[in-house]
Design goal:
This protein is of the alpha/beta class. The chain folds into 2 domains: 142 residues, Aspartate Aminotransferase, domain 1, CATH 3.90.1150; 241 residues, Aspartate Aminotransferase, domain 2 (3-Layer(aba) Sandwich), CATH 3.40.640. The protein has 12 helices and 14 strands. Helix 1 packs parallel to helix 11 and helix 10 packs across helix 12. The termini are far apart.
Length: 397
């Protein structure tokens, strides 16, 4: 009696079962997967955050399909502070980037149409697409001293039912930014094939090293219909506030029509609360206080990771340019699942296997640079010790 959109088979995997058993037994777990900034020990300016919600205007219901003008102006000012000029009348407010994806999929694709998404990447696209009766077709990112788009495979993936190309900039979990030359090629590719570009830029404020080649946003690309997504979850480390936005750019008549149609979708839901929209200017202004802490921690943890592994370790930390994660390539003496279970059961260290992010080959592990430094340092030390053992197995760490 239920929709086939929800016929997902979601039994607990071996890693979840092992983790639950360890927690139930009260055993130590060094969690190197922490992705929730509000649970990672950062010093939030509590009084300032709460004060942002004291505006009496939040008591007035003002249904605005694209979002309150005040909030749209605040999002435009966020871009202006990064020397990117975006008009507020091209910004649409949503409750989350997940909701933004849903709106855009509704706008661009009918049942059975296809959205091209990168692999490896965040494993949410298939679920969001399935809820819209849309199919995800993957194109690969390839690694050669850094990650890059495989344009040959992208072209092969772009069949007659393709409607858009998703880029995550920087990607989660590879931490790779789209480069300017890649963006030029992507815009030309999409314009020629009548495809839109969806750019998820939630981690773009977290570079781990300077690089003049990177394109921090596609909002100024111009040659193809483009949707740039971001929001409070990562920009200010406030996922619980539930506010994001879409910037619609591209050839003017096409972008205008796309925005008008998005407004119709948004008007059907009117999901974003008034309090957080009125609070947005102040939240964005104080967001730097949290971002600075996150930047310092991710940079320090990355440096600690590289130092712990050294140059001779069989575990290699792949190049990462930004975001909150690091990818480790480990020997294929064990599968990713076996590595993850061994680290958890013998060393009390929780990591994520690469197949959670659709890595095409073995063996990769993913760790969060957001983790508290003491936990991260000890967890990486135990991981390095496990990798140094000839078989990856043996006596407990």
């Amino acid at each position: 009696m239920f929709s086939n959109r929800l016929d997902w088979n979601l039994p607990l995997n071996r890693i979840s079962i092992a983790l639950a058993a360890r927690c139930a037994a009260g055993a130590e777990v060094l969690d190197l997967t922490e992705s929730n900034p509000t649970a990672a020990g950062f010093d939030y300016p509590v009084a300032q955050v709460l004060d942002a919600f004291a505006d009496p205007a939040a008591l007035l219901y003002e249904p605005a399909s694209a979002g309150l003008w005040k909030a749209r102006q605040a999002a435009a000012a966020y871009y202006a502070a990064r020397d990117v000029q975006v008009s507020p009348d091209r910004i649409l407010i949503t409750a989350s980037t997940s909701e933004a994806y849903a709106y855009i999929f509704k706008l661009l694709a009918g049942p059975g149409d296809q959205i091209l998404a990168p692999r490896p990447s965040y494993p949410l696209f298939e679920f969001l697409a399935r809820l819209e009766s849309v199919e995800i077709v993957h194109y690969p990112l390839i690694y050669d001293h850094g990650w890059m788009i495989d344009f040959e495979r992208l072209a092969e993936a772009a069949g007659p039912r393709a409607r858009a190309v998703v880029v995550v900039n920087p990607n989660n979990p590879t931490g790779s930014y789209v480069k300017r030359e890649e963006l030029e090629q992507l815009v030309e590719f999409c314009a020629r094939r009548d495809l839109a570009i969806l750019s998820d830029e939630v981690f773009s404020d977290y570079p781990l090293r300077p690089d003049p080649r990177r394109a921090e946003t596609v909002a100024t690309a111009g040659g193809a219909l483009t949707f740039s997504l971001s929001g409070l979850s990562k920009v200010c480390g406030l996922p619980q506030m539930k506010l994001a936005w879409i910037v619609v750019t591209g050839p003017r008549p096409l972008a205008q029509e796309a925005f008008q149609r998005l407004e119709l979708v948004a008007d059907t839901y009117l999901s974003v609360g008034a309090p957080v929209q009125h609070a947005l200017p102040k939240l964005l202004a104080i967001g730097r206080l949290v971002r600075d802490q996150i930047l310092r921690r991710t940079a320090a943890n990355l440096a600690g990771l590289r130092a712990a592994l050294g140059e001779r370790s069989a575990c290699q930390a792949l190049e990462v340019e930004g975001g909150w994660y690091a990818v480790l390539r480990v020997p294929r003496v064990l599968t990713e699942e076996e590595w993850t279970l061994t680290l958890l059961e013998q060393g009390g260290v929780l990591v994520q296997p690469g197949f959670f992010f659709d890595f095409e080959s073995e063996a990769y592990l993913v760790v969060s640079l957001l983790t508290h430094p003491e936990t991260f340092c000890e967890g990486i030390a135990r991981l390095a010790a496990a990798v140094a053992r000839p078989s990856g197995r043996g006596s407990p760490l």
